[in-house]
Amino acid sequence: RPFLPEAAEAPNPIAHDRAQRAKLDYLALGDWHGTLRINERTWYAGTPEPDRFKANDQGNVLIVNIDAPGSPPQVSAVRSARYRWHELSIAIHAESDIAGLREAFLRLDPPAEHAVVKLTLQGAIDFATRLAVNRTLDELKARVLHLGIDDDLLLAAPSDDDLDAIDTHGFVRAAIEQLRARAKDAANPDAEVARMALQLLYLEHRKQGG
After folding, report:
1. In CA terms, which of 56, 104, 119, 199 is 20 to 30 Å from 26?
2. How far is CA 44 from CA 17, 89, 100, in A?
3. DSSP of the chain, one letter per residue?
């Protein structure tokens, strides 16, 4: 029966109790890139270096000690990976949010030059903020080994025409009109909150293929 996690790309045809039935002191399995204990005598060591963005405990070697034939093995995992693979998702709606992007990189496992980073950005921002984001990304690229960026959902702040294209009737339309009125009222203390809410509505609209 399969005993790898559901995310495994292929099942392993070796029986989970093969070590016991074959009277093996220890059975080392391969072709699963993470460290995984199947039972007392059966383990996947995984790969000594991670090779993808996958949370399956990659980057270890196993030290296996067997005191005597038939004795249960003593297995310990030792971290061997030099490189660290990270997935980050950051929302940016204003230039002040760029500080959070910087902080996320500061929290990466040191040293930063060994980090492989997949960064997903989303939000609705104006042109000045977009330029500030681009400058920050250029700076962050120089700090890490590799930075892959998915900014398909980092959109230009919605125009009136963009907002008019969202749900032309019903309660969503009523909410948009109320928020738009507040956002344009400089004297309203909730103007900035209203602008943020409109950006989030627009972002959700685009996520749904609008």
Report:
1. 56
2. 14, 30, 37
3. ---S-TT-SS---S-TTHHHHTT-S-EEE-S--S-EEEETTEEE---SS--SS--S--SEEEEEE-SSTTSPPEEEEEE--S-EEEEEEEE-SSGGGHHHHHHHHHTSPSPGGGEEEEEEEEEEE-HHHHHHHHHHHHHHHTTSSEEEEEEEEEEEPP-HHHHHTS-SSHHHHHHHHHHHHHHT-TT-TTHHHHHHHHHHHHHHHHHTT-
First and final C-alpha spacing in the chain = 44
196 token code pair = 């943020």
Summarize pLDDT for 128-168 with one digit per residue, the tens.
Answer: 888 899 999 999 999 999 999 999 888 877 777 777 777 66
Is 163 within 8 Å of 174 (Cβ atoms)? no
Copy the structure tokens of residue 18.
Answer: 């093969």
Q: Which residues of 130-150 are buried (b: 16+ CB within 10 A; e: fewer)?
A: bebbeebbeebeeebbebeee
* pTM for the predicted model, two decimal places: 0.67
What φ, ψ does residue 39 adopt, rounded to 5°? -160, -170
For the stretch 85-139, pLDDT in tens is 999 999 998 889 999 999 999 998 888 899 999 999 998 888 788 889 999 999 9
Structure tokens at 51: 């090779």
